[in-house]
Design brief:
With about 450 residues, this protein is mainly alpha-helical. The chain has 22 helices and 6 strands.
């Protein structure tokens, strides 16, 4: 059975339908041994995906049948809402077994978004020393390095030799499960450098540790924003980095896996915000919660649509005189909207990665405007011919061509400038830019097309 499941999970599709169906069948048949055989070989992330794919009733039955199987790694992989649901189902003893072997940063990540009652439930499951460590981490600001770090640190006095450090590591039974550096500290517990395990193990015992320190050593303040930390990890190719308090004393360490999770969450958050679905964590989110999250931006879109409709209403007589305008004007607005979205996506992504700065913003805006102009001219020629052939009016083709050039140039400008301005104002450009860019392209597109038609055709 194990060989069969390993073969399944090696395929491109991590959870084939037949595996999910087999799990549901085993749950329905109350086949505990069969369920254990299906789940035991799977990675924690795959089990989390499986739990998200089955419905709430099957999840409850699975957890009841798979007693003792849930562990902390699986809980860490779950979305927030589903994690709360499963913690409610687990008994105190099973929850304690699940979280006992997690590193402190994983426990913090698991509990920080839970309701207070569930936080207490998880904390009560920890040993006194571990609970104190987690509570201390939770006292740091949200989305800070203090919340991101793990407090289990491998450190050594800066005057030690390689031999002394290796002897210490071999004699210590309480090392973290995963670590990449030995952090060197001075007598005041201030980090002065770190040494990779590879260099440590490949160097003669008598060599001083300070001779092996990495050039790219840097520290982070405990209250520093986790997004800045993740950016530094990605920018400077860090593997781990010490975290210090306000007195520059070592209090923890951040590792690359945690930093990359932050980057992934930031990218996912930006994508969701661009679509106006900020806050959705998984496909298991409840209907009411999802509705509440989407409603505000749908309301904003409605308001912007009304503004565009008011522009159209200004040209009622023009449209009534030439019905072809009603047929063609959505094309102008749609092309402008798509062009604006393209520029907006590039700009928001560049702002998030800190590639778009004050030093190059005008060059980027100029590029996007020129791209809009070139594409506008090309598609203007196409639509000019289409308008002429379709309705037999050459001037109608000229009107739609000119309107398309104007709107696509404005789209390139708005798609880049609006997120930059919002970012300068302290407003998240990923969250607010879309509505503004859509409004600008709709209003400019309709006004340019109908205004030119009123002047040139009537």
């Amino acid at each position: 059975m194990a060989d069969q499941i390993n073969t399944i999970t090696d395929e491109k599709e991590a959870l084939p339908k037949r595996l999910v169906a087999s799990v549901v069948d085993a749950v329905g048949a109350r086949d505990a041994a069969g369920l254990e055989g299906l789940l035991e070989p799977l990675h924690a992330a795959d089990i989390a995906d499986l739990l998200e794919q089955i419905d709430e009733r099957d999840r409850a039955s699975l957890l009841a049948l798979w007693e003792g199987g849930m562990d902390g790694e699986i809980l860490s992989e779950l979305g927030d809402d589903l994690r709360e649901e499963i913690i409610d189902v687990l008994g105190p003893r099973e929850l304690a077994d699940a979280v006992r072997d997690l590193e402190s940063d994983d426990v913090v990540d698991l509990v920080e978004d839970l309701q207070q009652s569930q936080q207490d439930q998880v904390l009560d499951a920890l040993e006194a020393g571990d609970r104190l460590v987690v509570e201390k981490a939770l006292a740091y600001p949200e989305e800070s390095a203090g919340r991101l770090m793990q407090m289990e640190v491998v450190r050594a006095p800066s005057h030690w030799t390689v031999g002394e450090t290796i002897d210490y590591l071999r004699a210590n039974d309480d090392l973290p499960e995963h670590f990449y550096h030995v952090i060197l500290v001075d007598p005041r517990m201030k980090p002065v450098g770190y040494v990779t395990l590879g260099r440590l193990l490949g160097t003669p015992r008598q060599i001083k540790m300070t001779a092996l320190t990495e050039d790219k050593f840097r520290t982070f303040r405990v209250d520093q924003d986790e997004e800045d930390v993740a950016y530094a990890f990605n920018q400077y190719h860090l593997i781990s980095a010490p975290v210090v308090d306000e007195d520059d004393r070592l209090v923890g360490v951040i590792t690359i896996d945690d930093a990359m999770i932050v980057l992934d969450e930031e990218h996912e958050e930006d994508i969701l915000r661009l679509a106006g679905v900020d806050g959705e964590s998984s496909l298991t989110d409840k209907v009411i919660a999802t509705t509440k999250r989407r409603f505000p931006w749908l309301a904003v879109n409605l308001a912007t649509a009304i503004v565009a409709s008011l522009i159209i209403s200004m040209f009622e007589e023009t449209i009534a005189s030439l019905v072809a305008l009603a047929v063609l004007m959505p094309i102008v607005a749609s092309m402008g909207g798509n062009a604006g979205t393209q520029s907006l996506t590039v700009a928001v992504r560049s702002i998030a990665t800190k590639d778009l700065t004050g030093a190059n913003v005008w060059r980027v805006i100029r590029r996007e405007v020129l791209v809009g102009l070139v594409n506008g001219v090309i598609f203007a020629v196409v639509m000019g011919i289409v308008g002429w052939v379709w309705f037999g009016q050459p001037m109608l083709g000229v009107v739609i061509a000119l309107a398309m050039v104007i709107n696509m140039v404005v789209a390139g400008l708005a798609g880049t400038a609006i997120p930059v301005v919002l970012e300068k104002m302290g407003v998240d450009p990923a969250l607010a830019s879309g509505a503004f860019v859509t409004t600008v392209t709709d209003v400019v597109g309709f006004f340019a097309f109908l205004g030119l038609a009123a002047v040139m055709l009537l």
